[in-house]
Amino acid sequence: MNLFLDAFAWLADPANWSGPGSIPQRIAQHLWISLVVLVIAAAIALPVGAAVGHTGRGRELAVRVSGGLRALPTLGVLTLFGTWIGIGLAAPILSLVILAIPPLLAGAYAGFESVDRRTVDAARAMGMREGQIVGKVELPLGMPIVVGGIRSATLQIIATATLAAYIADDGLGRFIFEGLKTRDYAQMLGGSILVIVLALVIDGCFAVTQRLVVPAGVRATRSPELRSGPPRLRAALGQPITEGNPK
Amino acid sequence: MITAGRGRLVALAAVAVGATVALAGCASGDPLANGSGDGDGSTETIVVGSQDYYSNEIIAEIYAQALEENGYTVDRQFRIGQREVYIPEIEDGAIDVFPEYTGNLLQYYVPDTEATASDDVYAELETSLPEGLRVLDQSPATDQDSYNVTTAFSEENGVTSLADLKDVTTPITLGGNSELATRPYGPEGLTSVYGVDVAFTPIEDSGGPLTLKALVDNQVQLVNIFSADPNIAANDLVTLEDPEGLFLASHVVPLVSDKVDDELAEIINTVSAALTAEDLVALNALSVNEQQSADQIAADWLAEKSLF
């Protein structure tokens, strides 16, 4: 328990809140790294996931690739990239992108897949082009699950971005590494607490976002549907169902 | 329903049994608790420990095999992490023999020590150890922090010693583990002792491949690598001389509990005396370059020296 008190004392020490290497600076670096990683990973994974979910093609491959990527230990990937491209932020960002792709990809294809095929067929019958179906039907209806994927990826990125400090002078991981190596456990634990709080706060923001992106039409009928609802509307709420003919 | 209920009961029982076995395993499975208490009579077991550092493990294995050749029963507790974990175990008598390094060990007990020359370090270490612990003779082999530059950097700037660094006109960045930033021989020591100002970049692999890569790519110009690391020779690095004694001399030295008697100490002292600095680099190279096991490296070295 004493260690926790020391950690909070470290967090409360004003000396740690200003100057180079201070807590605000490290938090800003940590968020910046996380944002860059999220944008790159989303640019890769979301279009691919949308294509897979929309067409239904390549699903097996997407599942296997994302499953395989999940098994990669990030520190190992980081060391591998580090020995190729050297120290600095490039190697950690690349390894974190690999970490973030599976949840983003899974969220995207599950989100697009979850939209009831009958809704899609109806849109097609009304004369919508494929692009319109993706943008105006599947994306809004699947959005809660897509955002869920982004939320899960972000949580993992923020927690793992501590590894950036392994080969760069960046991020909240610095407190953890430095505390560990110099036996300053108050600093180490304080740094960990900062990472946890940061992850929870950002996750909370995403939880709110996830509620807000439920389309108004679906939300309006939400509460009665959950009890007695026909499967079609439940599907629109984001639960993938397999009944019916998928095409 | 009955089948389902019974199935669930069986599953529950299995979990309960599994958990009990696992917990019992935890209770008696403390790897450091074994072999410590039951030590009376001539058949007592000597517990040899090592750090989680390949070179340290090789030395521990040499101690262990030397003791076994002399009729002792040895319990190996290797690859224990950091000093703050294993030192209390040695103090408690759970480990009897542990390869250590004079400078680093002294710094553990006396963080602000002034000693840097090897004899001073050893003398101060002998008086700084707590009750029940002692060090045997120090070996000529050293494995200490050292600052290294590339051959190209050394030739371009005419640098062979830390004292030459202050004449270098280009900015210098030092790379190493984050603790280096706060150690007395880190950037501050370089400024106060040699008048050199360096920037610092943390690379957390203890002079491993990432550190080497950063040095070779000129992302950093100065790195801290242990002097017995075979990579220094393999990459043609130049180890800078340290005329002012910035670094603590750090010889290989066995840290032992009071269970170690004169006869046993004699065996280990023989080993220590035979282990030269060149030997240690060569042994490390066998591990790093040839991927040989500590077991094999130790056996070959003992056979070659034919000490016993």
Question: Features of this protein?
Answer:
heterodimer, A: mainly alpha, MetI-like fold, 0% strand, elongated, disordered C terminus, B: 308 residues, alpha/beta, 3-stranded antiparallel β-sheet, 10 strands
Write the H/E string of chain B, N to C: HEHEHEHHEEHEHEHEHEEHHH
Number of helices of chain B: 12
The total of helices of chain A stands at 12
Helical content class of chain B: 40-55%
- CATH superfamily placement of chain A: MetI-like
- DSSP E strands of chain A, number: 0
Largest sheet of chain B: 5 strands, mixed
Cα Rg of chain A:
22 Å
Strand content of chain B: 15-25%
Largest interface (CB < 8 Å): A-B, 17 and 20 residues
Q: How many domain modules of chain A?
A: 1
Estimated structural class of chain B: alpha/beta
Largest beta sheet: strand ordering of chain B? 7-6-8-5-9
What would CATH call the architecture of chain A? Orthogonal Bundle
* Morphology call of chain B: globular
End-to-end gap of chain B: 73 Å
The CATH class of chain A, by name, is Mainly Alpha
Mean pLDDT over all positions of chain A? 87
Termini Cα gap of chain A: 59 Å
Low-confidence segments of chain A = 222-247
Write structural notes for this entry:
- The complex is a heterodimer of chains A (247) and B (308).
- Chain A has one domain (21-237): MetI-like fold.
- Helices cover 76% and strands 0% of the residues of chain A.
- Chain A is an all-alpha fold and 247 residues long.
- Chain A has helices at 2-12, 23-55, 59-70, 74-85, 90-114, 117-125, 130-160, 173-181, 185-212, 216-220, 222-228, 231-236.
- Chain B is built from 12 helices and 10 strands.
- In chain B, α2 (54-69) crosses α10, α2 (54-69) packs across α12 and α4 packs across α5.
- The longest helix of chain B has 27 residues, at 2-28.
- Chain B is globular and about 65 Å long.
